[in-house]
Amino acid sequence: MEKLELTYDHYKETVARNNEAQTKRNKLFVILCIFNIASFIMLLFPAQLIDGVIAFVESQYEISVEVSASFFHSIAWIAVTYTLVRYFQTMIYIERQYKYIHLLEHEIGSQLQCTYFNRESKSYLDSYPKALDLVHLFYTWLIPLLIIAISLLRIILEFPDRISTWTLLHFTFNALCFLFCLGFTILYLAFMHPRKKRDKSQKASNVK
């Protein structure tokens, strides 16, 4: 098999994986939003939520259960933390792969001795619309900052009115989840916005 054919096959596979990652990113974004909204509903209507879950479990499995609001808060933090990690991992993967795709296009173009093999790189970035700059800001600034703000508000509102060993353990666990989300979000922002100026080719991965 010739070098060009091998390179092109690898290019196709890389683009396909990147497209799959973008689809996964979109799904994770929706799930992350749902989990955060559900967490706020839980803070506003804890009694109704607990009664609803207990009634559902008892009707479906014919067993008697007794859980506290702090237990549900901890479950929510686990769900949000896991989804947040997966979301940021996928975003970082897409960002790194897009630059690699540019290199592959340049290599294939060099082997073909042509300048038109650049659909994902130069051709895509020609006359780059300002609207997509706003989308890039949405994904790489607004969403991470909103996540920090929402998580901070949640952990403040979850501070127990009455301190007991059980509630203190749950709150400590939730606070650790918050600190982890905060640290991971800051690291994500540091990766997406290094001190040196990034070119638009690195923005494009977040809007395709």
Mean pLDDT: 82
Range of strand content: under 5%
In N-to-C order, the SSE pattern is: HHHHHH
Summarize the main sheet.
none
Which blocks of ≥5 consecutive residues have pLDDT under 50? 197-201
Please give the domain count: 1
How many distinct beta strands? Answer: 0
Judged by helices, strands and strand pairing, the structural class is mainly alpha
Radius of gyration: 23 Å
Task: Give short descriptive properties of this protein.
208 residues; 78% helix
Describe the structure in brief:
The protein has 208 residues and is mainly α. The protein has helices at residues 3-44, 46-61, 69-112, 122-125, 130-157, 165-192. The two termini are 32 Å apart.
What does it look like?
The relative contact order is 0.13. Helix 1 (3-44) packs antiparallel against helix 3 and helix 5 (130-157) packs antiparallel against helix 6. The chain has 208 residues and is mainly α. The chain has helices at residues 3-44, 46-61, 69-112, 122-125, 130-157, 165-192. Helix content is 78%, strand content 0%. The longest helix is centred in the middle third of the chain and has 44 residues, at 69-112. It has one domain.
